[in-house]
Amino acid sequence: MTIVYEDRGDEAAEVPVRRIKFTINGQKKIAEVEPRLLLSHLIRRGVGLTGTHMGCDTTNCGACTVLVDGRPVKSCTMLAVQVDGREVTTVEGLSGPSELHPLQEGFKQEHGLQCGFCTPGMMMAAKALLDQNPDPTEDEVRWALSGNLCRCTGYQNIVKSVLWAADKLRSQAG
Amino acid sequence: MTQALDEIKIGGLGASRKRVEDDRFIRGKGNYTDDITLPGMLHMEILRSPLAHARIKSIDASKAWDIPGVHLVLTGDMMATRNLAWMPTLSYDTQAVLATDKVRFQGQEVACVIADDPYIAKDACEAIDVEYEPLPVIVNPMQAVAEGAPVIRDDKENQPDNVIFDWEVGDKEGTDRAFAQADVISRLKLHYPRSHPSPIECCGSIADFNRATSKLTVYMTTQAPHIIRAAVALVAELPEHMIRIVSPDIGGGFGNKVPVYPGYVCSILASILLERPVKWIEDKSGNLISTGFARDVYLDGEMALRKDGKILGVRMHTDSDHGAFFSDAQPSKFKIGLMHSAFAAYDIPYAHLTSRGTYSNKAPGGVAYRCSFRVTEAMFFQERMMQAAAADLEMDQAAFRRMNFVQDEDFPHRTPFGFLTDSGQYAKCLDVGLRAVGYEDFRKQQAQARERGKLLGLGISTMTEPLGAGNSREYDILGIKMFDSAELKVHMTGKAILRTGAKTQGQGHETTWAQIVAHELGIPAEDVVVEEGDTDTAPFGMGTYASRSTPVAGAAVAMVSRKIRAKARKLAAHLLEVSEEDVEWELGRFYVRSAPDRGVTITECAMAAYSNMPDGMEPGLENTAYYDPPNLTWPFAVYIVTVEVDPETGVWDVLNMVAVDDCGVRINPMIVEGQIMGGLTEAYAMANMQFITFDAEGNCVGSNYMDYLLPSAWETPGFELHSEVVTPCPHHPIGAKGIGECAAVGGPAAFVNAVIDAIGDASVRNIDMPLLPDRVWEAITYHHDVSGAPPVRADDEAVH
Amino acid sequence: MYPSRFRYEAPRSIDEAISLLHEGGDEAKVLAGGQSLVPLMKLRFASPELVVDINNLPGLDYHREDADGTIRIGALCRHADLERSALLKSKQPVMAAAAPLIADPIVRNRGTLVGSLCHADPQGDWASVVTALGGFVVARGPAGRRRIGIDDFVTGPFQNALEPDEIAVEAVIPAPKGALAGGYLKLERRVGDFATVGVAVAVETSAGTVTRAGIALTGVGGATINAAEAAQALVGQPLSEQSIEAAADLAAQAARPRTDHRGSAEYKRHMVRTFVVRILNANGDGSAAADGAGGDEDSAERAA
Questions:
Q1: Cys-Cys crosslink for B735: which of A164, B23, B321, B665, Cβ 3.0 to 4.6 Å?
Q2: B565 membership: H or E segment, kind and range
């Protein structure tokens, strides 16, 4: 990726950047970024994966949730430089080449989304839950998602979607 | 033997068809405004006022211009030289685009910077120096009309004070007579507090003016693209055919994405000046502090009662706080929206409403947030007054409502304020709800619990509302009538594309409109692609808000499908070599009445429209319908909530939440239930925790997500939904009524009534929302009502 | 939501980190979890010139119990690790009660207890817990290590006692001498809300008599309040209804709440009192968490 900016002949205008190497959805990348660049902007604008959304400016809504080294984080509250040497997984990395992840199927089967804006963050938080706890209760699902806000659904169908996915994952595991 | 298609199998009416939209959203492949990048695109950030009311003494943007990567800094005086510092609102007022003389609310737009990237734009905003001279602040209607109050809109001619309008409706003499005859008069005063719709996605636009073609394209978060096109044509003085508004995927609207915001206008001007695309995406704090809020209305209500419980008359006075500019998007005839829809479900002979609107030093708004044009206020006031009246009469809450309901056989019913309601089975809905919640048992448990000092409560709320604005005789916005439209093109292989003048923001139109086409034409829903939101291709419509889409655009979809079917019938007759009178229709097929085995499918008719037309017939199978609804549709609902209140802390928990919704024919039951659950959650949120208010200096408290609380999956209760009662709309082509906002309209009062019922203290008749623990505790401990009206309490005030 | 520019370094050893901080002086900030610092920088309430990211420093992500029962929490131990900790559930009821109530589950994956103490937010929950337990912070600087008692560590709202070139590397909770019980109750209207009122209570008993007690308050003053007098009222006798009421009254008096949009000062004092009583009455099972609405009594036990 190329960054082009104005040369006003003024050294102060030079913007120091840092080189980072990271993996995103299994693909290895190199980027040169300003330290102040937020991880969510690296994902959306740098890598061009716009499935991770930004909904607030105070680390509350969770629409930007991704996995870093398998653990869910709010990507708006991490600096891009902090994923140097780390693995990032976004919603685009959920499905395989030809099939959907059971969470994605579950959200469709159980009407777990309406406008779709909070959905990627919800699914990533849910994936982290199911990775740790393959057979959660309804309360455990609600607790795990309590850092992700939704305005449209009232959460009841989101919970059903996650439990649907949990069932399918367990039956796939045999 | 019938060869009609199975309607559920092809995804017709009543099918809980899985959503078409989901396929892209679950993959993270949605196309929201901030996902769009155009070549050469620049980024805009807005500098906002820190003060609520102040004269601007000077603005120095020189340091901002010097920052590398900055292309343009816009201030109010630059806008003024282009006649763009002010713009008209959807309520015939004017609103500042960028402040010139004064700032009139905290967060008001003062300047904007366009730069290579938003980080630089933000750096430059910080480098702009503005000198302010503070002025006294008004944060509620009482202050607005007090003697000596500063005039906020001194920019307007003929505006000597802060009053926007005085409006009234109803029968004053009749109502006065009814009150004179009353055995009991029940009075209630309360504040429906300011709330913010706060969809998760903020507002934004990408304005792209192409100098070579003179065409302006704006990708933006709007629920009403055609209204925006008209507004831009007016404001920017560009010819309407050279403006294209594209509303892509929208991350929730709830009325927040209807108004025209200064950010949109600035991005458009910047693009015209710079001849490059300019993207403006606001942040959540900007959204909460400056965009279209909801509610903020004070009620003084009275009910005249006969001692057996019959309501003889209702009097309401409302004071509404509209902020610094009157910018409500609502039918222009009704200054306080459809507030006079109150009490439509009850058989009351006389009612009178007076309403006053005032300016204040707050962001403009009032009509928003799933409100159906202020029906949220109307129904909340209604059900809180019903609760208080039943308590004053010492009557059972359910029995009081039941005895005053409009009876099933009395439709169409003229309400005391002059609406004509169309249909309903109110008592049956109440029965279903009471049975589901176990009413009698609950009352017994409640009494036993009270003896042990445990506070259980039950709250009932009913609502009916006028949805589907609206008929051209009565309804318009800025003079434009509120019809809607659908254009259907059936291709030669029998597949189709449908476009409407509505604009989905999560309601599932891509899925449901196709279901109407399947119902009318027998074309499987999966063979109909649905598009909305591009003013270059969509037929003219007034957009999606106020639950108007199924009633109006949905009706247009049915009507255009029928036009297509009428032409297909002619083609069928031609193919079957019989006259049209001999042709019958069953789902998906025309057949000869006297020889039912002889028939042609709709697909065969489609092919014929392009390859085998009868002499004299225009080829093709495409048409458009514009639907001017004859009346509004009137869904009805009963919401019942049970709670337990902890008297020591004021914290309350929901035990049960039962919803009985009668919205007529349900196109897609799964989607209807999703809408109801979403509305119930917002009702819970308003009743429990959402709080945006102002202190005495006009500082907005709750203008970010740390303070403005939305419930998560952990706090939100579960819901029990009932759909047994179905009263089709008698005048809607498929018998459907609106539903999107019903639960937000009727829900809040159920929660509040439940907590008041739990407290069970005759001297506690009202606690303003949100029912925060400290308010509930104060009411219980001090046996008095608790108000939440601004200015918010500060240290030097005593509780009692 | 866009921070201003800064220099960034990600040292690989503590010595390197310390020397970077020494260079940066007042204009440098340590970045650990970042769940307090990054939000402040996004709102431009903090604009350090140098950010020293310590996430790559090895061997700081532990929490463990020494042989004598002392609990040590490393600078990179995340809230989520503490929430899941079997050690805390069995040995440290006050900490176990508080861990699930910090922010929300996603933020808990990054935020750190030590970072929270350094941030010194008067609304911070951990500071009250560590105060009630009489803990201290271990700092490392160019001159070596030193211990700073928690009461001396927080010097004001968002201010701590560290020198500009010191890093907090560990929080230490002294081993209880008697049987340790207690809890943390927080009035929040929703997961992730700041505390309207938070109360940490720790009591150690020996043969039924209270030998040590600590009570600390969140959100009811300009900083964490150490209600020492209230705690002292419990010591030297078994817990009784009278001693609990006396301690609760004194704790309420120690609070210095403001009337604001979260409630009146009177209500907040009342809640301090109520929480002290509830924690001490639930003494047997050690934890009873109450979040504002919809939560149930077992929410503290939930595992993510």
A1: B665
A2: helix B555-576
